[in-house]
Amino acid sequence: MDFAKHSKHISSLIKSYGATSALSHIVHQGLNKILFLKVFRGMTLTQTSLHPEFRSLPSEYECRFLVPHEVAQYAADPALDLPDEFLLSEARDAQCCGVFHGGELVSYGWYSTKPVRAFAGADLSFDPSYTYMFRGFTRESHRGKQLHAYGMAWALLHYASVGQKGLISYVESTNFASLRSVARLGYEIFGSLIALKLFGRLIVIPSGKCSDYSFTLTPEGTASLAQVHVQNRKAA
Q1: Gap between the Cα atoms of 219 and 123, Å rounded
Q2: What's the CA gap between 175 and 13, in Å, rounded?
């Protein structure tokens, strides 16, 4: 990124999100040049925290879960960003909730109660009494209508009806637009996970109430063991 373009980007961040957020972005970028660093803001959405305006989907849209053959069908459309690698890994044990307009899939999100890969080499685990929301997407032609938020609200109400406490998710600390968007929906941040990779080793530093939600990162392939421990502990 050249200096002029970088300066324009920083100015835009200051204007939209304030000087503190812009400084956080600069520091995060600088550190990532010398080491692997991610900061996840953990959050939950419950029926109590959900903003009332999102409880009812606009009349021209409908929301429902996709069945497997539909997922395979839509994966053939490159505009929907459903690569085989994702479908065979993170999405394998998850459900896809779609928002439709005139029979066309225009927005979707994925949901799971099992650990899901957060990034290469690390899985995210959490209290399975919450449903994890990840990989939201909206077609460009329908963006700006808050369809992803409406889809999450619909999914929340569905999962709550079958006994789940709510949705759980994360947003990276420098994704200021998404942080603002989920706050409008009603997500509440409970803590953060700082993830570092040093000499090939994953180091996770939790803060806030992450432990209350068993919200953590583990080396890829070991998260299921951590979640079994959580379930056993709750049953004791």
Answers
A1: 6
A2: 11
**d(C-alpha 115, C-alpha 80), whole Å:** 24
Secondary structure (3-state) at 149:
helix
Strand pairing class (104-112; 130-138): antiparallel
pTM: 0.82
CATH fold for the domain made of 35-235: Aminopeptidase (3.40.630)
Hey, CA dihedral for 48, 51, 57, 59, is it positive or negative?
positive
Contact 38, 195 (CB under 8 A): yes
CA dist., res. 152 & res. 110, Å (int): 9
Whether 1 shows a pLDDT value over 90: the answer reads no
3-state secondary structure 68-79: HHHHHHHHCCHH
| Nearest CA-CA partner of 148 in 180, 185, 176 | 185
User: Given pLDDT bands bounded at 50, 70 and 90, which one contains residue 12?
Assistant: low
Contact 1, 9 (CB under 8 A): yes
Give tens-digit pLDDT for 43-64: 999 999 999 999 999 999 999 9
- What are the sequence ranges of the domains in the chain? 1-34, 35-235
